């Protein structure tokens, strides 16, 4: 997964409201913005729409238009997103460390400073 | 079982000892991992995290030191909001700088749980030969910092039940949901748990704000719901089984004892703003007025609060002798720390109905002298408790989060559930409920048939844990 995708996924999931919206959509085939807003007491339609846009740009949510309505569902390649999210959470912390202590240089053979592997 | 391994590597100009010294000082500018709060880098000691997962705010989490070689290596167990292993290695470079390698290992079960919580992966998979048992707890949000020992105790109970032949010849399989200390998220997590085919029951250890939303869902689905925390009485239904201490159980004897010790009569009631702290406030007022005391002030703040200054100023102005503090999780820690730092603790005693061994670990010396009455403290000196603590430590190691009253309550509820199913001859609701009336689990708590509490322990926080002062009858037993 390209670093920009990971960053977008991290930014999208760093917000508890967006995590809750994604979790809610995942419990249904499809939901409209109105149906999502109805689930949360303190969340208006406009706020829901702007959260949905960020989730859609991060590739986590797909949009289907049907007349006046837009229906939202979880995109079908979700497993990578969990890995990208966890990677970014730790990566984010170490990037902050590097910029705080300055003079940071990442190793040559791991240009993004990260390697993912799976072991069984 | 597979696992996800994340390797990070940085080459930094700072030398290993400089980097090592940065770790655990609570400086957010060096990132949430190195900027954690870790006053001691001893095996078993707590590491408090502030993760960038709360939107504009920081979101609390916990880890624990497994081992530490100064300037060379730090091994951590990440506990909340997810479980994992983190190893930081500091290698000196010829240039005088450091090659910092951070290796994170998260097992597949935990990755799958996180995926499910995020709505990205499907529901929980269990085998046809297993009995799925739901566990709804807080692993993230303000109450999440206390969640790992609860998850551990649930796991321990299920493993013990399975080692003893399971329930009706089938193995019990725990499926865990996180309410993120938020009723809206709790409802989604509960919906996901209830979709698990054949779900036998849900064990709930979370706020009563979540319970108000999730209990009707359990009733609508016909799923028994065993709710374990300290909580206010709510609407009754045969499928809803409550185990925890009520505010009256906790306060009716303890507040008069505290007033007798201080000789004071003025009280301030403070806490988070939802149903349970409000119920504690109402009960405290009744108990205080019955003993001719005076409630001089009251203040409630939303969950996730970080600024306690106006409330502390109000407490100071009120000239009280005691505070009843019903804050939750991270808010509880924040309030007590600021209360101690403000100097108010020197002249005002605190009764905190959620103060238990796990909270005391977070409070450190700022909790000293706080009282609470609960069904369980680690210091309970009985053979049942020594046996339970030995099993916990054998299973999770010496570097594991301390058992709390909340965690031990879940352990007993799951054993009580299994015994009731066996007594009732099945895992379906009718069998469970008929068995419940005839079953008792001989755990550390003093319980009657069906798990109702007989007596509570009066505890006082010290720097290193909770000291048991007395044993008090539950309100229902006393009247």
Major β-sheet profile of chain A: 3 strands, antiparallel
SS element count, helices of chain A: 5
**Which regions of chain A have little confidence, pLDDT < 50, spanning 5+ residues?**
104-115
Radius of gyration of chain A: 17 Å
Strand order of the biggest β-sheet of chain B: 1-6-5-4-3-2
Uncertain residue ranges of chain B = none
Report the CATH superfamily of the largest domain in chain B: Response regulator
First and last CA, distance of chain B: 53 Å
Content of β-strand of chain B: 25-35%
The main sheet of chain B comes to: 6 strands, antiparallel
Oligomeric state as shown: heterodimer
Structural class of chain B comes to: alpha/beta
- The main sheet of chain A orders its strands as 1-3-2
CATH superfamily of one domain in chain A: Winged helix-like DNA-binding domain superfamily/Winged helix DNA-binding domain
Detailed description of the structure:
By secondary structure, chain A is α+β, with helices and mostly antiparallel strands. Chain A has a domain of 72 residues: Arc Repressor Mutant, subunit A (Orthogonal Bundle), CATH 1.10.10.10. In chain A, helix 1 runs antiparallel to helix 4, helix 1 crosses helix 5 and helix 3 packs across helix 4. In chain A, strands 1-3-2 form a 3-stranded antiparallel sheet. Chain A has 5 helices and 4 strands. In chain A, a hairpin with a 2-residue loop joins strand 2 and strand 3. Chain A is elongated. Chain B is of the alpha/beta class. Chain B folds into 3 domains: 106 residues, START domain (Alpha-D-Glucose-1,6-Bisphosphate, Chain A, domain 4, 2-Layer Sandwich), CATH 3.30.530; 185 residues, Rossmann fold (3-Layer(aba) Sandwich), CATH 3.40.50; 147 residues, Rossmann fold (3-Layer(aba) Sandwich). Chain B has 16 helices and 18 strands. In chain B, the strands form 4 sheets. In chain B, strands 1-6-5-4-3-2 form a 6-stranded antiparallel sheet. In chain B, strands 8-7-9-10-11 form a 5-stranded parallel sheet, with helices on both faces. In chain B, strand 17 and strand 18 form a beta hairpin. The longest helix of chain B is centred in the last third of the chain and has 20 residues. The model of chain B has no long low-confidence stretch (mean pLDDT 94). Strand 4 of chain A pairs antiparallel with strand 1 of chain B, so a sheet runs across the interface.
């Amino acid at each position: 997964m390209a670093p920009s995708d990971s960053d977008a996924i991290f930014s999208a999931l760093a917000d508890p409201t967006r995590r809750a919206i994604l979790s809610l959509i995942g419990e249904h085939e499809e939901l409209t913005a109105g149906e999502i807003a109805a689930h949360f007491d303190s969340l208006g339609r406009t706020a829901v729409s702007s959260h949905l846009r960020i989730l859609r740009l991060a590739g986590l949510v797909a949009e289907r238009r049907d007349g006046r309505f837009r229906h939202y569902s979880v995109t079908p390649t979700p497993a990578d997103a969990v890995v990208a999210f966890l990677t970014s959470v730790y990566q984010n912390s170490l990037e902050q460390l590097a910029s705080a202590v300055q003079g940071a240089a990442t190793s040559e053979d791991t240009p993004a400073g990260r390697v993912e592997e799976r072991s069984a | 079982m597979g696992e996800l391994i994340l390797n990070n590597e940085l080459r930094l100009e700072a030398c290993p000892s400089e980097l090592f010294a940065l770790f655990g000082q609570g400086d957010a500018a060096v990132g949430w991992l190195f900027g954690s709060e870790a006053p001691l880098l001893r095996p078993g000691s707590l590491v408090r995290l502030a993760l960038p997962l709360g939107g504009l705010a920081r979101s609390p989490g916990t880890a624990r030191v497994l081992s530490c070689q100064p300037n060379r290596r730090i091994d951590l167990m990440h506990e909340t909001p997810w479980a994992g292993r983190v190893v930081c290695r500091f290698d000196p470079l010829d240039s005088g700088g450091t090659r910092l390698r951070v290796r994170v290992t998260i097992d597949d079960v935990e990755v799958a749980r996180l995926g499910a919580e995020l709505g990205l992966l499907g529901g929980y998979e269990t085998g046809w030969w297993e009995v799925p048992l739901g566990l709804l707890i807080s692993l993230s949000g303000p109450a999440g910092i206390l969640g790992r020992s609860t998850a551990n105790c649930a796991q321990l109970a299920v493993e013990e039940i399975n080692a003893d032949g399971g329930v009706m010849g089938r193995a019990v399989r725990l499926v865990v949901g996180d309410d993120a200390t938020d009723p809206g998220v709790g409802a989604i997590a509960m919906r996901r748990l209830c979709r698990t085919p054949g779900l036998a029951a849900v064990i709930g250890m979370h706020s009563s704000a979540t319970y108000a939303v999730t209990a009707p869902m359990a009733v609508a689905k016909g799923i028994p719901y065993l709710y374990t925390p300290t909580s206010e009485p709510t609407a009754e239904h045969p499928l809803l089984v409550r185990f925890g201490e009520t505010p009256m159980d906790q306060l009716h004897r303890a507040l008069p004892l505290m007033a007798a010790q201080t000789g004071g009569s003025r009280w301030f009631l403070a806490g988070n703003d939802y149903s349970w702290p409000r119920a504690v406030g109402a009960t405290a007022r009744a108990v205080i007025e019955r003993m001719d005391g005076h409630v001089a002030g009251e203040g409630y703040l939303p969950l996730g609060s970080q600024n306690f200054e106006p409330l502390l100023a109000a407490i100071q102005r009120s000239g009280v002798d005691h505070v009843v503090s019903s804050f939750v999780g991270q808010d509880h820690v924040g309030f007590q720390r600021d209360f101690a730092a403000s100097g108010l603790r020197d002249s005002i005693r605190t009764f905190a109905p959620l103060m238990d061994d796990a909270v005391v670990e977070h409070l450190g010396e700022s909790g000293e002298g706080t009282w609470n009455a609960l069904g369980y403290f680690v210091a309970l000196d009985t053979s049942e408790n020594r046996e339970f603590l030995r099993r916990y430590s054998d299973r999770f190691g010496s570097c594991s989060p301390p058992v709390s009253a909340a965690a031990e309550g879940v352990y007993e509820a799951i054993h009580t559930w299994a015994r009731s199913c066996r007594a009732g001859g099945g895992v379906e609701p009718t069998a469970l409920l008929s068995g419940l009336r005839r079953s008792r689990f001989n755990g550390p708590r003093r319980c009657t048939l069906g798990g109702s509490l007989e007596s509570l322990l009066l505890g006082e926080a010290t720097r290193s844990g909770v000291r048991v002062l007395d044993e008090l009858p539950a309100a229902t037993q006393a009247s």
